Amino acid sequence: MGRTSRTSRRVLLCVATATACGIASPAAWATNWPLTVQSNSRGEAHAQTRPNAPANPTALCTATALQITVSWSAVPHAATYAVYQSTTSASGPYTAAATGLTTTTWTSSAPLSTGTYWYEVTATVGTTWISPASTATAPRTITVVLCT
Amino acid sequence: MPDLRPPSQRKRSASRHRSPNSGWSRRSKIASAVVGAVLAGSVAFAVTNWVVGLGGGSSGQGQSGTISNVTITATASPAATNMLYPGGSGDVVVAISNPNPYPVTITAVNLPTNTTYAAGYTTSDLSSAQAGCSAATPSLVSWSFATGSSGSSHTLSSPLTVAASGQANNPLLVTFTNAAAMGTAAPLACAGTYFSMPSLTGITATGGAATVTTSPATDGWTS
Looking at the predicted complex, does its ipTM rise above 0.85? Predict the structure, then answer.
């Protein structure tokens, strides 16, 4: 019995002190032990706000073809643009003239009917983040002879 | 009393009557070797808390140590400057805490699936849910490069070493560049929203002496 208890003490002492038996210390053991992460570990991200309306929309008459070209400033990360046309007033109502545009300029089909035209533009980021409409362009009037 | 036996008998007697101490020493060595082999064998398994200590009733000196989980938490600071938008990616900011008495170096993260989405909140303290932008909506915000299988491993561009418990730079603030991705059809309700990213499923990390990373740090993965 005395021999057994002495053996137990020696075994446990060897494990606890480690280095006395040529085994690495707990800190050194950790070098070879994989650590893991606490459950529910996560991080934080932030999304940008709704895209701004395209700035600086302009409508210009083409020289001879009775067409109107609309241009605007690019919106960051915009995937597409849409142009809306009104023949009533600057405050609308507007109807879609072109959608899915990937450039910052659009030219109407030729020739336009006589009348006065206003235009607004929206930008879309992704497929669902649609910006507010831009301010209306200055009016452009098509007559039989002139576009003024 | 002198030994009157012939020399041949004396030698055999010496081998029969060994010192009790030499016999017990060999047994104790074998026992300690067995214990050491068992302990070394369990290195293959990840542990959450593992303690080495002395058995009851033992005498003598000894030491103990623990291996504890690293904790990664969402944090609003430093604020992410590279923000999410539909079809794009954005930064993820974390605070990494090491409760161990030695530095821990992280070399990779394990991600949930690419259909495990983040929950949206109205403010950076992630306290009020954003209507129409929850994980279930879904927000379409997930970890970049996550795959269809949970637990995919992604190597960090640079290893991150978190200082020992109680030391400077622990917790370690890290911005993971472009670590979050937003699907093109993300709801408009998610615009301007703060996201609590889905939980990591694991990390690849080891403990031991290393040059500590200074906070705030920038890191990430590219595949």
Answer: no
